[in-house]
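About this split. The held-out portion is used to measure sequence recovery: a designer receives only the structure tokens and must propose an amino acid at every position. Recovery is the fraction of positions where the proposal matches the reference. Here is one held-out target exactly as it appears in the evaluation file.
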């Protein structure tokens, strides 16, 4: 018999004192959360000893997998030598300086300068303030409107919430930040109607031009978007979308900011989603995979145009965080990038395990009665669950098909995330072929159970 005394004790403490993020805590307290106890490779173990395949790499972040001694050692050594010092007041330290160089060595184009922060949301807030200040330095303080997309996720600070396009977030904790406009997301399967993928890609990109013209090109600071939307449900844009977006940004001198918090660090099969999709951003945010989630750290990579303006401006940029460039986090991120290079993990995702997962998903699940569409690249995928494959009709509001499926996954030792009726995968990049086979077999089992639940 399983001894669950420890589980109950932790759940009880949790219910008494812990408010969970993005959670109905009251409902969770009644049910009791799963207690995660330890992890190794691509597997988690809960407090009851159940082994679970982590198809989400934590929260899209544990890219190099769990239990990497190199990363723990880097934190331990750095904490002994210099656990903390700031980079505000004319000081720096080796981990921050070396990490900035290391990041600049993998970022695309002329993204040669790095600003550090503690989370993806802080990186996004940094982009908001930095691009506005850039235009201020250029003598155009009125060029301060940011354009983003419906259903985008850019974090949950006030800046991130406002920039994002999540209705459920906008309804809480307002009012939102002014000066933000949104255009449609390039979600062809869900919103393309009768248009071909190409026609829809063009239409969604041209929505940017329409918005710029409506607001006035002289008022628009930047367009901000993820190369592939992650938390929005893994939305891969039509192939022609990004070229047209870039043409429009150039035409109206609108800065292009890529949010690489999920797509960065190998997830799509290149160092950044921008590389995979042929994007040359002026500025980009990154977090999560930067340290494989072992310690919190984020960064904004800044292109020469913007960084030169700040450097030549001869004034302080009044922005930063206590933990900007935190030495232990930076040391771990540095060790993480070195490990990624040593193990050729980006190539492994791009040429080997990424295509393997994508094919396996389509071969195994493509014909499943619940599966309307599978999209993804590298090691990220979104699977649309529908009631009717032909018409794409969904299950409606009464049946939360995503949650039903996610619960079956939990009960069967697989973590998949549900975004509405889309099932999401984003496993650690170190996943092996045998582990991908196991993941997809488990997903099939859970899709079958889900079908039974709603039949
Ligand atoms: N940008 C993007 C693209 C993200 O995915 C953030 C910014 C904010 O990062 P921080 O570190 O502040 O959380 C994110 C974060 C989910 C989920 O349920 C996704 C994220 C965070 C929490 C939950 O898919 N992405």
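Reference sequence for scoring:
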């Amino acid at each position: 018999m399983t001894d669950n005394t420890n589980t109950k004790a932790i759940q009880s403490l949790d219910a008494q004192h812990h408010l969970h993020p993005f959670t109905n805590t009251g409902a969770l307290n009644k049910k009791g959360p799963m207690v995660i106890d330890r992890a190794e490779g691509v597997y988690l173990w809960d407090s009851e000893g159940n082994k679970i395949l982590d198809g989400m790499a934590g929260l899209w972040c544990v890219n190099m997998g769990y239990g990497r001694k190199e990363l723990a050692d880097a934190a331990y050594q750095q904490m002994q030598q210099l656990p903390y010092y700031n980079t505000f007041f004319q000081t720096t330290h080796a981990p921050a300086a070396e990490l900035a160089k290391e990041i600049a060595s993998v970022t695309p184009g002329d993204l040669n300068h790095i600003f550090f922060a503690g989370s993806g949301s802080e990186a996004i807030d940094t982009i908001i303030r930095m691009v506005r200040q850039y235009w201020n330095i250029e003598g155009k303080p009125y060029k301060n409107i940011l354009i983003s997309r419906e259903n985008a996720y850019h974090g949950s600070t006030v800046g991130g919430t406002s920039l994002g396009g999540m209705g459920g977030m906008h309804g809480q904790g307002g009012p939102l930040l002014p000066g933000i406009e949104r255009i449609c997301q390039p979600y062809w399967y869900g919103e393309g109607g009768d248009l071909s993928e190409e026609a829809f890609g063009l239409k969604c990109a041209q929505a940017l031009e329409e918005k710029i013209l409506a607001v006035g090109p002289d008022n628009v600071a930047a367009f901000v978007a993820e190369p592939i939307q992650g938390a929005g449900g893994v939305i891969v844009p039509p192939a022609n979308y990004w070229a047209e977006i870039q043409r429009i940004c150039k035409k109206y001198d609108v800065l292009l900011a890529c949010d690489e918090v999920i797509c960065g660090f190998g997830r799509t099969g290149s160092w950044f989603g921008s590389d995979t999709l042929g994007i040359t951003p002026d500025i980009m945010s990154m977090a999560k995979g930067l340290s494989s989630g072992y310690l919190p750290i984020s960064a904004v990579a800044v292109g020469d145009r913007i960084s030169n303006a700040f450097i030549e401006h001869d004034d302080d940029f009044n922005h930063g965080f206590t933990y900007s460039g935190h030495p232990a986090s930076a040391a771990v991120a540095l060790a993480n990038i070195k490990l990624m290079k040593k193990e050729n993990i980006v190539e492994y995702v791009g040429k080997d395990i990424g295509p393997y997962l994508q094919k396996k998903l389509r071969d195994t699940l493509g014909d499943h009665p619940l599966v309307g569409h599978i999209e993804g690249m590298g090691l990220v995928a979104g699977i649309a669950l529908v009631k009717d494959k032909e018409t794409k009709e969904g299950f409606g509001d009464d049946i939360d098909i995503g949650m039903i499926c996610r619960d079956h996954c939990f009960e069967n030792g697989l973590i998949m995330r549900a975004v509405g009726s889309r099932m999401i995968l984003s496993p650690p990049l170190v996943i092996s072929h045998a582990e991908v086979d196991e993941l997809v077999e488990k997903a099939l089992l859970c899709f079958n159970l889900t079908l039974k639940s709603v039949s």
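Annotator remark: The first helix runs from residue 5 to 17.
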